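SAMPLE LOG
Freezer: B-3
Tube label: C17
Construct: single chain, 305 aa
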Amino acid sequence: MAMADHRNDKPGRPAPRERRGWLSRIAPGVRNFAKRDTPENLWVKCPDTGEMLYRPDLEAALWVTPSGHHMRIGAKIRLDGTFDEARYERLATPSVVEDPLGFPDDRSYGDRLKAARKATGEQDAMAVAFGRIVGQPAVVIVQDFAFMGGSLGMAAGETFIMAAKEAVKRQVPLVIFTAAGGARMQEGTLALMQMARTTLALNEVKSAGLPYVVVMTDPTTGGVTASYAMLGDVHLAEPNATIGFSGRRVIEQTIRETLPQGFQRSEFLVEHGMIDQVVKRADIPEKLSSILKTLMMGRERLSAA
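STRUCTURE (predicted):
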């Protein structure tokens, strides 16, 4: 005969209660959601205020927080938000030799590339597409800081050159959204060479009489700032973006002086003539369209003649 369990029959010890979540206690009939029912990334923390933001609301706001902080975004989100109705033609990026120097590290360069590709869904730090920005055709390059800090290497250099040639071929303006920490150290001098190569590619765009417009996003630094990021016909920037060559701490240690408040931020650079205008993310397509239309007017008259 089986022995009954009377451990909860002792005086003074209540029978076990059914465990219920707080929601079922205050609203009977409403089921509790298991942890697996709620995405782990449903809430995003605002970098400025620490406030937890509902992800769908943040996506609808183009990843700009209520405090006005422009969060970093990837290539697809940028392209979707730039081109009319998120319709555009993605252009295939060129292939290059990977790890040409056999760079020694605690983690192989190849493994770092694989991890970056898996995380971003992109082949390298630059993506290129062709489409219309509020009616104006353009070839657009986007640098993704999430891909190894948006670093400029051989693949990014070849992609930039391809985009420049494509703009000349299609006779349309070239636009770039920059975001980078500088040249890719795993490629050494080969990465630094891309600064000169991209500059030469831009000469072809300008020789063809086509506009080149730069939109600097957070952060745009290092060799990228020292090359194609500062060679535009017009320079725009998102609010409070970090833009410069060396970091603030390095500069202060070198010159042994304290830099002004807001140094290397886009608003500071507008005041000092380094960039033309700070534009909120939601307003960038309209602003770009207006600029491109204006810069192409002379060319249209020449074509008509």
